[in-house]
Amino acid sequence: MSTFTTPLIITPLDNGRDWKLIETFRYYIGSLESDEVVSVPAEFITDFASIPRFLWSTFPPWGRYGKAAVIHDCCYRKGLFTRKRSDKIFFEAMKVLKVPYWKRRLMYIAVRLFGRKAYKE
Questions:
Q1: Is residue 102 one of the residues assigned to a domain?
Q2: How far is C-alpha 71 from the geometric centre of its chain's CA atoms?
């Protein structure tokens, strides 16, 4: 089973929206023995889930899926995988975090429909 092996240690930025990683954060894709690891470096800036404000009551930027959103941000910005693969990793990571199926499915559909602009920006 996939796993997060390091804690997410962050600090807020003065803009009130973004966060900076203090230490490297890792996620093993597929299983702990996997050769595929997403390693988000210290100093990486994330906004967690890029969700329009009007949806925050149901889907706040931070939630149980927060760590998965950081992994997804890194995959997108650094172009670590194709956009489609990055979105599947996001879906998988949310499952590891025990995000309810309906919520992770909706978030996956949202990144598939609206994530193109953010990929490698």
A1: yes
A2: 4
